[in-house]
Amino acid sequence: MREYLMVLLVAAITTYAATNLVRRLALAVGAVTPVRARDVHSVPIPRLGGVAMFVGFAAAVLVGSRLPFLGDLFATSQEIYGVLIGAAVISLLGAIDDVRELDWLTKLAGQVIAAGAMAYFGVQLWSLPVAGVTVLPGPVLVTITIIIVVVSTNAVNFVDGLDGLAAGVVFISAGAFFAWAYLVSRDFNPPNVFTTATFITAALMGCCLGFLPHNFHPARLFMGDAGALLLGLLLAAATISMTGSVDPSSSAATTSA
């Protein structure tokens, strides 16, 4: 648990520190949200906060790879590196959209590419926890994986409408999923609480925690699409990496429910 706390703190502190620099960048490049009739802010607010959150996540990955127990996770699997690549793609896509609006088809294509990159590195469904464990053909499972990522990224993007709302909701969601994944993984055979899902959610909580002080009402910076799409992708990655590892009829799933 101490290593997860370290990951969370690194992500939070790095995100908090990077946010000030990103705010200046947003003002310099004109990534500013104007005042609209339906908005609660009364003055234009810069966006691009998601870039700071990506920096925080990348810092957490770097530190996590150097820790004694989490380091073994990096040595035996490329999943987290795949998530980092997917996060970089989705953050770049969102940042471009924050500076100059992209059409929906371009954004959808970018989301599919990010999901595909994660699947290539092993972050994909290998089975479905339906009626025990259901194994489908590989292309079908990859397609379902991509759909989950696209739905999750856009769901968080739609939620992002009030100061602190999206970051707060994702922080709570990540915390709940971390607790569930941690408890379930203790019942693995052999027990192993160091999983891709728990790492991602710990880092995700840190990113949200570091960004929220800048985003509480009255917000000084919005996360923009760069942030909303990133948070949705990380939530999806944690869900996908854990789903298929647990049989819902097993004691591991039922005892922690």
Helices and strands in order, then pairings?
Layout: H1 2-29, E1 32-33, E2 45-46, H2 49-64, H3 70-76, H4 79-99, H5 104-120, H6 138-159, H7 165-185, H8 196-215, H9 224-242, H10 251-254
Antiparallel strand pairs: 1-2
- Percent of sequence in beta strands: under 5%
Shape: globular
Q: Helix- and strand-based class? A: mainly alpha
Low-confidence residue ranges: 251-257
- In total, how many beta strands? 2
The order of strands across the largest sheet is 1-2
Q: What is the gyration radius calculated from CA atoms?
A: 18 Å
How many helical elements?
Answer: 10
What summary fits the major beta sheet?
2 strands, antiparallel
Helix proportion of residues, in percent?
Answer: 55-70%
How many structural domains in the coordinates?
Answer: 1
Name the average pLDDT: 88
Element-by-element helix/strand order: HEEHHHHHHHHH
Amino-to-carboxy terminus distance: 20 Å
Explain this structure.
This protein has one domain (2-254). The chain is mainly alpha-helical and 257 residues long. Residues 251-257 have low confidence and may be disordered. The protein has a two-stranded antiparallel ribbon. It has helices spanning 2-29, 49-64, 70-76, 79-99, 104-120, 138-159, 165-185, 196-215, 224-242, 251-254, and strands spanning 32-33, 45-46.
Structure in a nutshell:
The chain is mainly α. The chain contains ten helices and two strands; from the N terminus they run H-E-E-H-H-H-H-H-H-H-H-H. The protein has one domain (2-254).
